[in-house]
């Protein structure tokens, strides 16, 4: 059998871009043997040609203009690793598709915002957009949803989708340090960006969830329908209290279908300490899929990093070589339904609450009375010791409720704050049993 040739261009030479080149340099013979294809890098492009990098790039043709590379007539596949939801990343992908080039991207923000448009443009131009590297690093979650579980009616998908947040929460628990201390540690080790806002406020996980929900439930990408809450308000007191109750705190992305309505949430949750998700620590990711025929399936592994993510890029390259012809979102675009979203107000769950209230007589009795008036049963209420808060004459009080809903919880919290002034907003964390 004659060997094929696939000509690729890489735009963006950050961590993942360098990882793609390194894998090709180190494993070219293995890749040729497995694919019967000679993969050639016909051009590269980044902001700074002379920037010091971990790999040699001098033997590759340099393009100052990324759109020129995207439109090059010899190119078969453009690999976009710039990042960002707009700007040059969008322009380059549009140019490549319009020039009838396949696109591989790790850019979840771009797909979350413009995916519906870009997938439509690719279908019109009879090319493919592949994006395994955009979600959960080396975990083959897109391929699993699009192929292996395609015959199932998915009822729920949830998991740990952001390695930065998982590292911070694990570090707080294992080392008994504050959120700020854990964040600085994550930055030092390269698990958090200099500006970690997108990670710690939940937007990165929400970008990924919007893509996963689209593939899982055959609906258009609907990032704007996701309720997003990050982890910056999680304190060491919350971590320790959760541990006392037999839980860990994890930032989860959750998509559930009920009566053809979809709820999508990114939020910190208490999960049982003995559960699979509780055991996913540090920068690792995990995704749980619930399907009609297989029950429950969990995939876990490195959710980020140079070589794990670059490995996912090569999975997409192999699909192009093998002419794997699955719809980009798992379902033909014409068969995707518009997302019918459902709010969270009637969602039934147990809740963890932490208040900081004045250390005065009758506080506990006031809380229990207010909960009862709002038809909320209390499974546990504990007054905790905090030297820091003691100096401010404040008492940390944690509560575990029986099953109730957000409306009742929010009303009870409002009433408690009226009757027992708290200078700090209470933490409300849902319990995912």
UniProtKB/TrEMBL annotation:
Binding site for L-homoserine: 193
Domain of life: Bacteria
GO BP term, pick one: threonine biosynthetic process
Top-level EC class: oxidoreductase
Protein residues bound to NADPH: 108
EC numbers on record: 1.1.1.3
An annotated Gene Ontology molecular function: NADP binding
InterPro entries: ACT-like_dom_sf, ACT_dom, Asp/hSer_DH_NAD-bd, HDH, HDH_cat, HDH_CS, NAD(P)-bd_dom_sf
Pathway listed: Amino-acid biosynthesis; L-threonine biosynthesis; L-threonine from L-aspartate: step 3/5; Amino-acid biosynthesis; L-methionine biosynthesis via de novo pathway; L-homoserine from L-aspartate: step 3/3
UniProt feature coiled coil, ranges: none
Keywords: Amino-acid biosynthesis, Methionine biosynthesis, NADP, Oxidoreductase, Threonine biosynthesis
Annotated ranges, domain ACT: 352-433
Active site per database record: 208 (proton donor)
NCBIfam families reported for this sequence: PRK06349.1
Family named by the database record: Belongs to the homoserine dehydrogenase family.
PANTHER family, sorted: HOMOSERINE DEHYDROGENASE
Annotated protein name in UniProt: Homoserine dehydrogenase
Species name: PS1 clade bacterium
